[in-house]
Design a protein that fits this description.
By secondary structure, this protein is mainly α. Helix 4 packs antiparallel against helix 7, helix 6 packs parallel to helix 8 and helix 6 runs antiparallel to helix 10. The N and C termini lie far apart (49 Å). The structure holds fe (ii) ion (2 copies).
């Protein structure tokens, strides 16, 4: 998971999904506000303001897209995993990500959008997904580093979402976070093994850390000062912790893990600040971040083309499933007649 892009509008400035307009009603609004103030849950049949619904559709659908696009960089290594054990772990992890996509598409559908609309927005390039997946996985160490750092950053982002005010999203995130924890551990453990190996293996891990570190910090989204929508997200109980606070938590948690692993995080400004009780860190390259979000990353075109091809290749499966369902229904109706 992968929530960097939650601050990023889709290409049409919206969710890419037309939503039903809900007439405004002061009493219903007051009921909604009271539920939010009491830190309660909003459920699919409850009245909710249009803007709340739209924000959630954008966020949950971007999250779902990120999960299934996130299968691609690592899926690339399934056929080249160095042992049967690593292959079995990686297959399980990549399947988990597909499952996360399914829980999240289902959660978004409860808001009145359809899976076809969401896929259409993804395939036409209107919808965003986390730009971390627009980078290539060059070596086996990248698979370990993605588990450790990318899934680690995802967990940091997603644990507060288990308390999101929208019930279906919050409940989906509880299961997702449990699985993400396994993803993070398998990655870290794979790296620990490599760091006990040859000088070449150690260098491979360090190189992967060098390439992924800054991109993982950017996963938390733009600085708070440049995230005007975050305030409303917090008011609605969708966002619980600010981008900068989450990023800081991630840095503080990761530095000791890097020490145990024996790798250097590629930031000369990274040091403990006694007065703040946190680590200071250097400047993130936001120009690169926005360039990749806007389509200019090394793998944007390849990722989208792979998803579109998978969708087209799967057309016969969807048609067969629908034909089977129709037959079953006809048979049931005949039997009932
Ligand atoms: Fe995931
Ligand atoms: Fe994951």
């Amino acid at each position: 998971m992968y929530t960097q892009s939650f601050n990023v509008p889709d290409a049409d400035g919206q969710s890419g999904a037309p939503l039903r307009a809900v007439p405004h009603d002061t009493a219903l609004q007051a009921h909604f506000d009271a539920a939010i103030d009491a830190d309660g849950k909003i459920e699919p049949r409850d009245w909710m303001p249009d803007a709340y619904r739209k924000t959630l559709v954008r966020q949950i659908s971007q999250h779902a897209h990120s999960e299934i696009v996130g299968m691609l960089p690592e899926g690339n290594w399934i056929s080249r995993a160095p042992s049967l054990k690593r292959k079995a772990i990686l297959v399980a992890k990549v399947q988990d990500e597909g499952g996360h996509g399914l829980y999240l598409y289902s959660a978004a559908e409860t808001l009145g959008t359809s899976r076809d609309q969401m896929f259409d927005a993804l395939h036409s390039g209107k919808a965003k997904y986390s730009s971390i997946f627009n980078y290539p996985t060059l070596t086996w160490a990248d698979v370990g580093v993605i588990g450790w750092l990318v899934d680690g950053a995802a967990i940091m982002n997603q644990i507060p979402l288990c308390r999101c005010s929208y019930g279906p999203y919050a409940r989906a995130m509880i299961r997702v976070c449990k699985e993400e924890s396994f993803h993070q551990r398998q990655g870290y453990e794979a790296l620990l093994v490599m760091m006990q190996g040859t000088a070449e293996q150690k260098a491979m891990v360090q190189d992967a850390v060098n390439r992924w570190w800054w991109k993982c910090l950017a996963m938390f989204g733009p600085p708070d000062a440049d995230s005007p929508n975050s305030v409303q997200g917090m008011r609605w109980g969708i966002k619980r912790i600010s981008n900068d606070d989450l990023r800081q938590k991630f840095v503080d948690a990761t530095v000791p893990q890097a020490e145990v692993l024996g790798v250097t995080l590629p930031d000369p400004d990274l040091k403990w600040n006694e007065a703040r009780g946190h680590h200071d860190y250097g400047q993130i390259d936001w120009d690169e971040f926005w360039a990749v979000v806007n389509g200019d990353g090394p793998c944007n075109k390849e990722r989208l083309a792979t998803r579109v091809k998978a969708w087209n290749d799967g057309a016969w499966v969807r048609e067969a499933a629908l034909a089977h369902a129709r037959k079953q229904q006809e048979r049931a109706m005949k039997e009932a007649a």
